[in-house]
Known about the structure:
By secondary structure, this protein is of the alpha+beta class. The chain has six helices and four strands, in the order αααββαββαα. The longest helix has about 50 residues.
Amino acid sequence: MRPNAKIETARAFTVIELTLVVAIILILSGLLLPALCQAKQQARSAACKSNLHQIGLALTMYVADYQKYPTAGAWMAVAVSTAPNQRVLPYAANNRNVFYCPSQKPAAKSTAERTVTEPLSYGCNNLGSARFDFWGIRLGIATYPPISASEVRAPSDMILLGDSGTDTFWDMTLNPNVLAPGPDTIAMTANSWLPSKRHKGGANILFCDAHVEHAIQERWIEKTDRARRRWNNDHEPHPETW
């Protein structure tokens, strides 16, 4: 051994030192985790907006070819992989993933049902600001005769579709009216038609010119002329339908 060699002895951490290390890790985790969760939510919202924009481009091509917006049957067929009347899906390059919001957690369904259908995250504006279709102010995603592109007075301010409902399996309709729960199925499920609260308490909404906006649910459904005219093809608020 060299005469001036130093002998290094192993030294264990004390309980106090270990406690301090754990406390620092917990503090850092408390600071970082909310930021990471927020970043994850923002990423999901951005992916959702991208989906809606792609659907908007697909429907723009659809309308250019047919001169009318798709009916409810054409929209619902997207969720049924075996449906022979796939008119909308081909315009989205047959990619069903764009119809599913990454922030949606649909209600569980049986394996048998999932083999037939795919969840749709986005509902269509098929009633306008009305509760029933006979007003004729809808966009056209309805059972009745479709609406032509020329009938939409303000495409850049006309809601086409967007995040819908309470994350049930068949949220395929978008409507601003809140209905009290009742004994019939329509009344019980109608509130799933509302724009969702998936993204920071609100929904991403696609307009007829293919641009996407985000707002809290209350802003989309408020009973004001500004909010309700965005639901109607004639760009009028129609307070008689509220």
